[in-house]
Fold these 4 entries.
Entry 1:
Amino acid sequence: MSQSPLTPGFAPQPEWRIEDGLVGYPEALGTMETRVEAILAGTAPELVWLLEHPPLYTAGTSARPEDLTDPGRFPVYPARRGGEYTYHGPGQRVAYVMLDLGQRGRDVRRFVWMLEEWVIETLASFGVRGERRQGRVGIWVVRPDRPPLPDGSPAEDKIAAIGLRLRRWVSFHGISVNLEPDLSHFDGIVPCGIRDRGVTSLADLGIPASMPDLDLALQAAFLRVFGPAG
């Protein structure tokens, strides 16, 4: 694992919840709101919530109308998180993280780095090299099997998205990792406002992983990145 620019703090491990079926986006927002308030009140522990959504688009606070290229395709929801347009749907694991940064160092830069590292560590367990890119949110995979871009740089695709919101130092939203979603569903938006890069998934990369496999990898990587309980 590469080294963080800042030393991670330690906090008790959060509760983990894994949903079996598809969870509607308004329901997910309501659950996050309720849990964040309970964390702030000291009546509930932190939560990492793993789920899948039905096909939909979400609009972050920086979303531009022109980046919604097929507005009638799927429902569109304002997300009240940072970022632009994102697709969610079956075959994509969404991990909503309701964590108390007040107990984890109050360092947003470090926290975003750790979310990125969580995805990178998870992908590494499947033999996939995920990378950060300066000025581009999310985790990227180089595609040497495809022609280079017009400027000569290697082709690359996005495999995971990150979106975050804080309320009094407690986080909302989190990450999404593409296991085997229908990649054509991303065609109705310009994902995260980036027009010259594509989108991929573990299945698209030839990785025969199941959702339980991905969940186990996420849990193991979370412990490595965020530290042991205590």
Entry 2:
Amino acid sequence: MGSPWKKSSKDFPPGPRPLPVIGNLHIMDLKKPYQTMLEPLEEELQRFSTRTQAFACFWKPPHNGSEETLPDNVRVSKQYGPIFKIQLGLQKIVVLTGYETVKEALVDKADVFAERAPFPIFDEISKGFGIVFSHGENWRVMRRFMLTTLRDYGMGKRSMESRIAEECSFLVKKFESYKGKPFEFKGIITAAVGNIIVSILLGKRYDYEDPKFIKLLTLATENNRLLGSTPMQLYNIFPMLGYFFATRKKVLNNRKELYAFINENFIQCFNNLDENDARNFIDSYLIQQQQERKTQNNGYFNHKNLEESVTSLFVAGVDTIMSTLFWAFTLMMKYPLIQKKVQEEITNVVGYAQPRAEHRTKMPYTDAVVHEIQRYADVVPLNVPHATTVDVTFKGYFIPKGTHIIPLLTSVLHDESQWERPHEFYPEHFLNTEGKFVKRDAFMPFSAGRRVCPGETLAKTEIFMFFTSLLQRFTLQPAPGISTEDLDMTRAVGLTTPPKTYTLCALSHS
């Protein structure tokens, strides 16, 4: 049999023509690849003109720079429709854009698009273990265990809400300690969010100033930033050059330190393990491991799966929620009238009581604002790449088994056919004419299908409770001398994309 690539080349999705060796790398913004895939041709042409010198050995650009004489390989963006191909190095990637296309792939054909695409740096880190970058039966077993265990430890239950409420009280006291003076809230919010996932993993919490905890959070957030950086993008495209990238060494060293922390606590849990009293996620895993050993020699509940699952749960559980809350507070400073309207609803519905998830249905405007923050924030714009499990004909195109797939989440959350004002912060996206909350099918900040974020329910509860607890007690304003227009809304580079504004004043209502 011949290669499916050769047999399907004429039926493969269209895309810009690749250059030798580099593919379409010359037209990609590696700091914001998701933007390259969507932006208008004019912006792409402008950026292209600044890059041709670097690739002059592969292609000589035209002299006049007009659109008519530029080659097809700069015509990415909207020219090819909702499905198109890009090539990075020798790797062909199919990009899916827009709600209808992404939904059909991830939901309607969930099993077909359920595989995880291999990437050198992630494969080097996880080696196929854990949940995020694992495959086949290992992924299914680990995902099933994680979902069951998260539910056991309160995800979606009152017990978890109580843990979050307790952390909210610590966070409020910390904000109060600044007495309305400007402070950087990045580390404080990161620690508060980190304590929720730590309570599940280890059954404990850390003080915000604990040096070990600060180091742990720094390692996790730094790696998420580095993994989305240009050097790591280039390493994933040209892995043979990996030893020349200092960033790769930094990522691997950070990961080793994260593993060391987990192993230290793993030993403590193991030494105090009671099979009849699982106190946390690691306890549950160790008990499952012992039960598995009684029935089979080489099961899935090995040390490497534990190490990788705990690390992924911690890193993902901190970074996405943290980034969303950064956007929440920045947007409230940016739009004080919206902040005031949220505060009025909190006062009318909750009063001075601790906001809970149950209040959400009675607070349609606040619920709409929280949803719009998540849509607008778009903190994982590129999604985590998928791969096809079988050969498939999709939307008239033949896509071979194992093809890398990017279901572009930013294209769903800003789909002009689904949102009235896709590029603006507009809470009315989630309100009807009567002011009641309405669900929107194109709201997919946690992705969809088989690889949807397993902590989605926990994340929604955390975001809502942290957000309402702080706005109940404080009015958030920019630091003196900074106007709402001066707030830096630039997206940071990384696997997640928080804003760059991290300073605020929290004016107490008491």
Entry 3:
Amino acid sequence: METQSISTGTSGPEPEAGEEWLGDAEGEVRSLLVPAEMHGWRLDRALVALVQGFSRSWLQQLVADGAVTLRGRACTKSATKVSAGDACAVELRPTPQAMAFVPEPMALAVVHEDEHLLVIDKPAGLVVHPAAGHWSGTMLNGLLAHHAAAAQLPRAGIVHRLDKDTSGLMLVAKSRAAMDALVRAIAAREVNRQYLALGQGAWRGEAQREVDLAIGRDPQNRLRMAGLRTGGKPAQSTLRLLDGNDQACLVACKLHTGRTHQIRVHMASLGHPLVGDAVYGGRRLWGMQRQALHAAHLRLLHPVGGQPLSFWREPPADFSEALKTGGLHYNPPNPGDGLIG
């Protein structure tokens, strides 16, 4: 596979020191001698000092994989003590991180495209950006194959993300001017983003509710987020009931901030975890095998031309079927309109 360099920007998963090295398909073997001053050191500590520019964790992985020989024999324990004069050889194999930023042709559902802007309807199940466990097959890989200029942009032009199992509309910049403008517009809350969410239980309270609840890592479970009364990052959402019954509620959600899992956390905080969202207490109902969340509407000014743009996408088949089975209905808005003003 041909590799392609890409600017990773200043946010999102970054390669550790040295992990941007790609090498070739066979790797590079470096022969080393342990100097006197490193006598008695752990093998991994010595390798960090002798193989400049590579992270300790990556070198430890090479040791565990059998890519390091010490005194002529494979050594798979990083804690092994080395002696002055020991001969050591390291096969510097390309890491999954290093191979992540490569073009992979895929069918992207393009809603809008011009020289500066892409709007994509992301299917549920597609990971947006490479990360641990998903080093290939991501939207970023597809964008690199879709247009060559993506390789020159931070994160291939991705300015916001959707969770793997959330479907719907995403903005992607195709030029640096567009990317900078979109980042500013999102930070200034000038991009109107609205979602459809299917929550558990009968809706309680006013038909439209403003949720202002900071979000941060759950102190009891670092793998999920939580609404926090102290600490965390500010998070605001407007939630509006569209339809409901004793079992569930269909809710339009307007984001004013863009925190990780914001809608999922805010809905759960109100006692309405999303159907299918096991992380936040939701149950699988009516065939939904993922969190029932769909990014349905985007409204903004074109980042370069300034003309008003509005995009709407119906929820996918699994979401629509769950609504039907659950006895819920919604009326799509008029073209150009959202569900919340």
Entry 4:
Amino acid sequence: MPEKISSARSLASASPVPLYHQLYLLLKQQILSGEIAHGERLPGEQELMALHQVSRITSRRALAELAAEDLIERGRGRGSYVIHRMTQRPLQGALSAALDNLIAFGRETRVQLLSFERAAPPAALAQLFGTEAKAALVRVLRVRHDSDVPFAYLESWTRPPGPRYNRRALQRDLRLELLRACGVIISRFEQTITAIGADAAVAEALKVSVGQPLLAIERLSYDQHGQLADHLRALYRPDRFQLTMSLGTADGDAAI
């Protein structure tokens, strides 16, 4: 079973959104983001009951919803397995301009640090970083505000860059600039954009309803040595945030 789902995230029992739908949204989010990868087994009905303190009917219906969308395949006696496979079509752009825009954006908004810890990453992330599953990375949870309104929920996993990358510094400095100060030069990054529904923890942090559609951006940043230095997963409220890209074609290239 993937490490990411070995400990439960909270469901909002007081929410008007049914528990089965909250559980479905949580699992769907993990599947679409790649946290539960293609071919991995999901917890069974009994496991979901214990993890999330829900009834068997709730867990069964959540799994049935995932199967109906062809995200998982269920088999009697063998459990439920992810059959969804993410397809990507990369676009290339100027790195320096993108990083400058990210830094300027960070200076114009305010960030709230929720947690800072050294922790073992989920198995899928450990594989991306090329580390053993139990090797500790730095996990940071933040909420970004614009005019005191929360609009972004940010989870980052970072290869430890040194003692300067600490809780106090992150409360004061921008993360990209702090990484630079620690000697980490971002040479390239890969970014994936999709949409998901807010689970209970994210909904509470962003002050939206459970299931609210969010813009999800996953960014993998590689350092000057070609190693994955940082993994960021950012969830944005679409009513408070828009992503605009200006793309051009090289001479002789056909427009997409």
